[in-house]
Write a structure and sequence with these properties.
single chain, 200 residues, SH3 type barrels, three-stranded antiparallel sheet, binds zinc ion
Length: 200
């Protein structure tokens, strides 16, 4: 069981019945197929797709979330783009385009040549985010999709838990305020002060 599943299950709790080994899932927590890499039966995490419509996001598997933050995505993870780039969701098309651009392989160049984007979607895909003003505790620039680690315990207002020092927050998003980022901790989306995080 991976960490994400463990967290989900601990949140969901076990349903006690005559069959205690059966788990009751909320419908939204049923693992789905990743729309980018086509990995089936995997928990998905919402990832913002900046540069276009506000709040645009795509639910991706954990591996894709990590790969989105990389300048050199692993080509082997993305061979399914040959199929998934034809998604009808423009946000998926944008991620497919940006990922293919980063992959240095003939097959990726071929797919880029085939990928049709309408004008709006192409402009979105090519709208590379300007240099971020968000900096971590060490002054390192933070970008959407980065993974950060909390450097102190943070009490989450309005939610009944403390985010522990050392907790990794994957797939952060930036806010209008350079002192704030947003990320998901224990399944809850929270605002975190950049001075309390370190880029991983
Ligand atoms: Zn994926």
């Amino acid at each position: 069981m991976n960490v994400l599943n463990a967290i989900k299950m601990s949140k969901l709790g076990f349903v006690t019945s005559n069959f205690p080994f059966l788990l009751q899932y909320h419908s939204q927590d049923i693992p789905m197929t990743c729309p980018l890499c086509a990995t089936p039966d995997t928990p998905l995490i919402p990832v913002p797709v900046p540069g276009g419509p506000a709040d645009a996001s795509v639910d991706l598997c954990g591996i894709c979330v990590d790969q989105m933050a990389s300048d050199t995505p692993n080509p082997d993870h993305f061979r399914s783009l040959a199929t998934t780039m034809w998604s009808e969701d423009p946000a998926v098309q944008v991620l497919a385009f940006r990922t293919l651009q980063k992959i240095d392989a003939p097959w990726a160049d071929d797919l880029l040549g085939q990928l049709y984007l309408d004008d709006d979607t192409r402009a979105w895909a090519q709208n590379v985010v300007a240099e971020s003003q968000h900096k971590d505790a060490n002054g390192v620039t933070l970008q959407t999709g980065d993974t950060v680690v909390l450097i102190k315990d943070l009490t989450v207002k309005g939610a009944n838990f403390t985010a522990k020092r050392g907790t990794a927050v994957r797939g952060i998003s930036l806010t209008d305020n350079p002192a704030h980022i947003e990320g998901r901790v224990e399944g809850q989306r929270i605002v975190i002060l950049t001075e309390f995080v370190k880029k991983k």
